[in-house]
């Protein structure tokens, strides 16, 4: 099993969700986050005053999938989240040792 973590632009969330659903992803977790990287923040004007925003809003997706589906998920994420501009995000793929469905006690890939 694989655990995929992606940080994407917030306005791309629905497009990414649709792409993942289309390839068979049955669930994911979404968290609103802030971060910085190559984008290094930006400036905004509020009530006539300009100020620097060092942390840019992003959305973090966490997805647990079978090994067989992992490459498709990464490809779907990359295509759906891409704008071609700086700050499109990152995707991380980690090995997932165990998964357990609390309600039924199912373990491993059956819990996904």
Would you write up a description of this structure?
With 112 residues, this protein is of the alpha+beta class. It has helices spanning 13-22, 67-81; strands at residues 2-8, 29-35, 42-46, 49-53, 56-65, 89-95. The strands form 2 sheets. It has a 4-stranded antiparallel beta sheet, with helices on one face. It is 22% helix and 37% strand. The N and C termini lie close together (9 Å).
Please report which band the strand proportion falls in: under 5%, 5-15%, 15-25%, 25-35%, 35-45% or over 45%.
35-45%
Number of separate helices: 2
Q: What gap, in angstroms, lies between the N and C termini?
A: 9 Å
Strand order of the largest sheet: 2-5-1-6
Total DSSP E strands: 6
- Compute the gyration radius: what is it? 17 Å
Return the structural class.
alpha+beta
- Poorly predicted regions are none
How helical, in percent, are the residues? 10-25%
Topology as H/E string? Answer: EHEEEEHE
Query: Kindly state the mean pLDDT as a whole number?
Result: 91
Q: Give the overall shape, derived from the CA principal axes.
A: elongated
What about the largest sheet?
A: 4 strands, antiparallel
